[in-house]
């Protein structure tokens, strides 16, 4: 009898937690496990702003998937671009560009999310995100390049444009990105004596009336005061009307000379969830408390892709797409796949949120662990302690801790790698959002495959 085929899509917090639990709980030879991911590492997303600011090296937050002692998962290097739940086939585009059809018996969808964009003129061509390791590396190179060019330019107009930076999105990613990178450009003044400190200006823009409302009014106001105290111009209730290569127009009519636009205005579930017919809620697949997608045999969804009921809150509440939920959902999904295989009762996912942490760089932070509001050094200790403990391997923990200590002692370096220097990539290029098939295309492909087979 053929072994059951388990396919996990995505190597984020949810997907990796699922695979690791499957490897530990399944008997050798009991099932065939495959993981679809473009890169053989798990990216620790919350620390990307520190990669962009140079506090951490890219390798520090990219945790290898091949260090597990029980590693027996086949890693398929590519991205899932379509699923046919009836035929139980996942269409995969490998990193070589080859498109293959991967059959499965059970599939766990944890493809994560992509940057949410709007129909704003010039946005996708002139903005950069903070969702992938490549984007963080690119943003760092780009910001340092602006300092280099401004320092060498005799043109005051060009210098002014190069030294204004706009971040859109007042959530965690945007706030931490603006805070961390602003510290870098401030620190750079010691290395660029020809730059006028008054010309370096950071703008944080968000259409919402409050900064990080999930933190509550007091901590949100504290974070706002910290940013404004550093000289960051925070504009709430405002967004982008138009984005050009050398200027940004805001919805309040202001036109800012700017060569650096960083877009972090939210995320949406991976386009993969739209390649087949299933009920969705706010773009996420509707799932049961057991993480099963209704009406689709052998399919589970979680993380950013699944609208998982929040049983601790009750009612219509769904779990926020945070790392702490994703990791635990991944383990629950693995247990439920195994329970389905062994014809045993399934487990309901339930977890009470542990709180939130926001690292604003240096000694500045705001945190809310278990509902306790913290500011300053205590909040920073909690934020970094949480991130450090959440890293999956001791090697990753050692690298991150070493980087933190080295940065605290030696300060910032201003070195460009030349990444994407000649041909800047767009938002779509970084996140490959144009690669997905439609539901009709997936159906045609699997029907042709069935006819041939």
Q: What topology does this entry show?
A:
Blueprint (H helix, E strand, L loop, with lengths): L4 E5 L3 H13 L6 E6 L3 E3 L4 H5 L5 H4 E3 L9 E11 L4 E6 L4 E5 L2 E4 L3 E3 L7 H4 E2 L4 H20 L3 H7 L1 E5 L3 H17 L12 E6 L10 H13 L3 E4 L3 E4 L3 E4 L4 E3 L2 E4 L3 E3 L10 E2 L2 E3 L12 E3 L4 E2 L15 H19 L13 E5 L5 E5 L4 E2 H15 L3 H17 L16 H5 L7 H14 L1
Parallel strand pairs: 1-2, 1-8, 2-5, 8-21, 10-17, 11-12, 11-17, 12-13, 20-22
Antiparallel strand pairs: 3-4, 5-6, 6-7, 9-18, 14-15, 15-16, 19-20, 23-24, 24-25
Helix pairs in contact: 1-9, 5-6
Give the key terms.
five-stranded parallel beta sheet, alpha/beta, 25 strands, single chain, 34% helix, 453 residues, seven-stranded mixed beta sheet, globular
